[in-house]
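Quick one, tokens below. Sequence please?
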């Protein structure tokens, strides 16, 4: 397949973490586990998957790259995850029309350690085309002003 979002995101994360592959990662909207596979290929080994679909989690489990498999929706609800449990969250393709909404950012921030990373890979056109995602960059800026992240 020519879909390279997972692979490119894994390479970017490796750069952002300066080659440190021991980071604890939550793969958000993990789907069938393509991102987990790509992260594993570049050396990451401590990954959990968050995915609302039981069928997708079955496929993700078959990749044998995840520790914990968390079946839940990402939104304003509190996930069964401790504050600051992860060094980084990664979401590849979760922000597509009808999928994860902008109201999830606070929860992503909560589950990442201070100084950690929230990585979102999405099609740039969706920032203009999808009404929900026109709110994304303003929401990110507001959270920055509020001191929630930088």
């Amino acid at each position: 397949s020519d879909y390279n979002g997972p692979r490119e995101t894994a390479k970017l994360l490796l750069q952002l973490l300066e080659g440190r592959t021991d980071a604890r990662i939550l793969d958000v909207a993990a789907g069938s586990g393509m991102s987990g596979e790509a992260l594993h290929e570049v050396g990451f080994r401590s990954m959990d998957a968050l995915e609302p679909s039981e069928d997708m989690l079955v496929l993700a489990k078959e990749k044998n790259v995840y520790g914990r498999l968390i079946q839940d929706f990402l939104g304003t609800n509190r996930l069964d995850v401790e504050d600051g449990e992860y060094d980084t969250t990664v979401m590849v393709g979760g922000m597509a029309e009808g999928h994860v909404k902008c109201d999830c950012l606070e929860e992503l921030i909560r589950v990442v350690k201070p100084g950690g990373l929230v990585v979102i890979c999405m099609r740039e056109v969706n920032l203009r085309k999808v009404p929900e995602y026109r709110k994304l960059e303003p929401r990110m800026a507001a959270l920055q002003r509020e001191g929630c992240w930088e």
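The mean pLDDT is 95. The CA atoms of residues 27 and 49 lie 5 Å apart.
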